[in-house]
């Protein structure tokens, strides 16, 4: 449980555990439907495309582009007080799904829709590694 | 996220979003029960603080407590009531992907489907609508829905609102009560209530002359669900 002043951590459960365990190994995994091939994100128990529950985990390229982004000015959680303004970005992966993330090594004023990015991994605590993205040339 | 993508795909600007806020506030200034009645200018809009960029404070709807009630009954029963009835001509629903992020396109709302259904049921077209009440949780969803309902082409909503065509006295008076942005935030009740008041001729200074047909929209989730209602007096 997060204390005031500590950023909330992702809640790891039986469904999403492979995602977070892979991130600790610096690998980006997505669920892929074994029936129809749909890549699903965020992790869940059924395929939103064909409703199958046969979802496997596959390693993906980690490459994508910025689909859209916002800049948070409002402090919605006290632990983010020192971080505002900060950008929250939706990256569209080459495999299709879009991931909500932050950019590493990129100023807010340099963010553009369509900008190519690749995954990097940020060990934020001993338990949690967050997939983030950085611009590629 | 959706607002930025909308700006990217169709070139909308913050000033166009601001035109929605300014117009609806002007309407609210004529509504004695509106929560926010002091007029604002486009400069006030641009100077209002960022909440989550590209949205300023004045892009966001109010926070309110309140209540409204509607009585729905048969036309036959309604004829014997004291208040003049308003008739439901058409209704439709449209529910795109629950998670807006994974939707194939972020910039089309469920209004496209719900509007088609409602217009077909009512047997009219957008040209026949006298007054609109569009769900305005944020400014930018107003031009987006006007496009999806067919009041203008896709991507033309920004110019449509900036030219003042949604203002009282113009082509398509919209959110004449001030809407969720300036009257009060009690979700779908606000638009439906104002449409009924307009069709009954109860709107005083903000009355649309001879308003016969009104269109109301409502939305839920993160533009995940949508409903359109067409009413007549």
Structure description:
- The complex is a heterodimer of chains A (137) and B (233).
- Chain A is mainly beta.
- Chain A contains one helix and eight strands, in the order αββββββββ.
- Chain A has a five-stranded antiparallel β-sheet. A three-stranded antiparallel β-sheet of chain A has the order 2-1-3.
- In chain A, a hairpin with a 5-residue loop joins strand 7 (116-123) and strand 8 (129-135).
- Chain A starts with 16 loop residues before the first helix and ends with a strand.
- The mean pLDDT of chain A is 93.
- By secondary structure, chain B is an alpha+beta fold.
- Chain B has a single domain (2-232), classed as Thiolase/Chalcone synthase (Peroxisomal Thiolase, Chain A, domain 1, 3-Layer(aba) Sandwich).
- Chain B has helices spanning 2-10, 14-28, 42-47, 75-78, 111-122, 141-149, 157-162, 179-182, 188-200; strands at 50-53, 55-56, 87-94, 131-133, 213-220, 225-232.
- In chain B, strand 1 (50-53) and strand 2 (55-56) form a beta hairpin.
- In chain B, helix 5 crosses helix 6 (141-149).
- Chain B is globular, with a radius of gyration of 17 Å.
- The relative contact order of chain B is 0.22.
- Chains A and B meet through strand 4 of A and helix 1 and strand 1 of B.
- Strand 4 of chain A pairs antiparallel with strand 1 (50-53) of chain B, so a sheet runs across the interface.
